[in-house]
Amino acid sequence: MADVDDGFSSGILTLWRCIGCGAMGNAAECSGSCDFKRNFVIDAQRHADLLEFHLNLMERSEALRRFVAELAASTEDLGRFLSASASLRGKARALAAEPPLQPRPDPAPDDERMEIWVCRCCGQVEAFRDCLGVCIRRNGDFVLSVEHDRIAREIEVMEAQVRILAAIARQVAWTSPKPGQEDAMRLALREHMAQFHATDEKKVEIDMVEIAAGISGG
Ligand SMILES: [Zn+2]
Ligand SMILES: [Zn+2]
C-alpha cells in the first residue's frame, strides 16, 4: 500500500483549496474502499525559504568540515600540527572572513498548518469544511509539515556544528600559540573537534528517529 504514488515522493503536493472555506483536495478518484490517514501540510513557498537557508548552511558546513578534517589529521602529533596550522592559515582566514548567513527563517507557525486526510490506497486528498457558499478553488503547492519540521531540526543541529567549526577556523586564522603553548593549543583544538563529533552523532540520532517514524507511520 505504501507504493501508491500519492505525490509525496516528490515532496510537493499540488492541491486545490477553497479560498472561502478552506476545503482542500486533489483529483484522485478512489476505486475501492478508502483508508484515510491524517496529515498536516503547509504552503510550499514557506517551506522553500527554509530549504534555501538549509542549502546555504550546508555549503558553509561542508567547506568548514573539509578544513577541520585536514587539520584533525595533523593533531595527533605536535610537529605535524604546527606545520599544518601554518599551511592552513590562509584557508582558515578565508573561511573566517565569510559574511554571516541571512537570519534563519522561522518554521511555519501552527496556524499555517492545514489538516488534510490522505487515502493510503489511492492517494486521494481531502479536507472537509462546511462551505457557506460556492467553493472558489485555487491550485497551490503544499509540503507535509513533518518534512518541514525535519528540515528545521536539521538546521538547528547544523547551526550548532557550524558555530563550533567556525570557532576552530578562527582560532587557526588569528591565533599563533605563544612559545611553549603550542601543545596546549593543539589539545584545545582536539577538545573542540570532539565537541563537533558529539553534535554530529546527535544528527545521526535524529536521522535514525526519522527512519523509525517513517517505518511505523507507513
Ligand atoms: Zn482511496
Ligand atoms: Zn468552500
Give the secondary structure arrangement, pairings included:
Elements: E1 13-18, E2 24-25, E3 36-43, H1 44-72, H2 78-87, H3 89-96, E4 114-119, E5 125-127, E6 137-144, H4 145-174, H5 182-217
Antiparallel strand pairs: 1-2, 1-6, 2-5, 3-4, 3-6, 4-5
Helix pairs in contact: 1-4, 3-4, 4-5
Bound molecules: zinc ion (ZN) (2 copies).
The helix count comes to: 5
Major sheet description: 6 strands, antiparallel, barrel
Bulk shape: elongated
Kindly report how far apart the N and C termini lie.
9 Å
> How are helices and strands ordered from N to C?
EEEHHHEEEHH
What is the beta-strand fraction? 15-25%
Low-confidence segments? 1-6
Average the pLDDT over all residues and give the rounded result.
85
Whole-angstrom Rg: 24 Å
Return the domain count.
1
Helical content stands at: 40-55%
Structural class: alpha+beta
* Strands, total number: 6
Instruction: List all distinct small molecules, including ions and cofactors, that are bound in this structure.
Output: zinc ion
Enumerate the strands of the largest sheet in spatial order, edge to edge or round the barrel: 1-2-5-4-3-6
